[in-house]
Write a structure and sequence with these properties.
The protein is α/β, with parallel strands linked by helices and about 260 residues long. Helix content is about 45%, strand content about 20%. The chain has a single domain, classed as Spore Coat Polysaccharide Biosynthesis Protein SpsA, Chain A (Alpha-Beta Complex). The protein has nine helices and nine strands. α3 crosses α6, α5 runs parallel beside α8 and α7 packs parallel to α8. It is globular and about 45 Å long. The protein starts with a strand and ends with a helix.
C-alpha cells in the first residue's frame, strides 16, 4: 500500500462527500495505491452512517468509530493505528489544503525528511479567504508555540501532514494530547526523537463554516501547550533542533 489518507471527522456529513470524491479522483489520476481511513469522532449527525455507506461501495475505504467524542488528536491516533500505507497523510475533512498539494510533501520525503508538514506561513505559501480574526488567533498561537516548545516552526496547525509510515506509527503510538494541539505534540516528539521535519509551503483555502468553537478550542489548546512546555521544555535550546532546521534558517536569511 503506497499511501494511507487519514481523515478525522466530527459532524462532517455535508463536507465529507465532495472531499472523498476529490481525493479518489486524484488518486486514480496519479495511479496511487491508497486507502482512505475515515475516523468518526463521536459525530452527532449522519457522518458515521455516511462513512459506512462509502465503505460498502468502495473497498479502499476503512472506517474507525470513536465514541464518545474525544477530540481531533484522539481521532487521528486511532486512524494512524490502523493505517497500512508506506506513507501516511493526515488531511482535514474540508480539504482546505487541496489534495493536489500532496506532491510537494512527497518531494520533501524524497529529499530525506521523515515528516513533511504543510505550512500556510512558509515563504511561497498562499492562504486564501482566511478571516482576519482567525489569522490573528493563528499567529498568536504560533508565537506561543515558538516561545514555549518549538522555535522556528511557522505553522504547526495546518491540517495537511505527511509521514513515513513507520515514523507515524511510532510518533502517534503514545500521543497524549487529544485536542487540536495534538499537532504540536507530534512535532515535539519528532524533534525530540531526532526525526527530520520539513515545513512545506502549500495553498490553503478557507472552506467556510467550521465545526470548531474558537474560544473553547483556543483555551484548550493553550492549556495543552503549557503541559507540553513542562514535558518537553528542553527543546528550546536543542542542538538536534538547530541541526535539523539549519536549512530553513538559511532560506529565511536569503529572503
Amino acid at each position: 500500500m503506497d499511501l494511507s489518507v487519514v481523515i478525522p471527522c466530527f459532524n462532517e456529513e455535508r463536507r465529507l462527500p465532495p472531499t472523498l470524491g476529490a481525493i479518489r479522483a486524484y488518486l486514480r489520476r496519479q495511479n496511487i495505491r491508497a486507502e482512505l481511513v475515515l475516523v468518526d469522532d463521536g459525530s452527532r449527525d449522519g457522518t458515521l452512517a455516511l462513512m459506512r455507506a462509502e465503505a460498502a461501495r468502495h473497498p479502499e475505504v476503512r472506517v474507525v468509530a470513536v465514541y464518545p467524542n474525544r477530540g481531533k488528536g484522539r481521532a487521528v491516533v486511532e486512524g494512524v493505528r490502523v493505517a497500512r500505507g508506506e506513507q501516511i497523510l493526515i488531511s482535514d475533512a474540508d480539504l482546505s489544503t487541496p489534495i493536489e498539494e500532496l506532491p510537494k510533501l512527497q518531494a520533501a520525503l524524497d529529499r530525506g525528511a521523515d515528516v513533511a508538514i504543510g505550512s500556510r506561513a512558509a515563504p511561497g505559501a498562499r492562504e486564501i479567504d482566511q478571516p482576519l480574526h482567525r489569522q490573528l488567533m493563528g499567529k498568536t498561537f504560533n508565537r506561543l508555540v515558538q516561545t514555549l516548545v518549538l522555535p522556528g516552526f511557522r505553522d504547526t496547525q495546518c491540517g495537511f501532514k505527511l509521514f513515513r509510515g513507520e515514523v507515524a506509527h511510532r510518533l502517534f503510538r503514545d500521543l497524549v494530547t487529544e485536542g487540536f494541539a495534538f499537532d504540536v505534540e507530534v512535532l515535539v516528539r519528532a524533534v525530540d526523537a531526532g526525526w527530520t521535519v520539513e515545513e512545506v509551503p502549500v495553498r490553503w483555502f478557507n472552506a467556510g463554516a467550521s465545526t470548531v468553537t474558537p474560544l473553547r478550542a483556543s483555551t484548550a489548546m493553550l492549556r495543552d501547550l503549557v503541559r507540553l512546555r513542562f514535558r518537553f521544555g528542553h527543546l528550546g535550546a536543542s542542538d538536534v533542533w538547530l541541526d535539523r532546521r539549519s536549512r530553513d534558517v538559511a532560506d529565511d536569511d536569503r529572503t
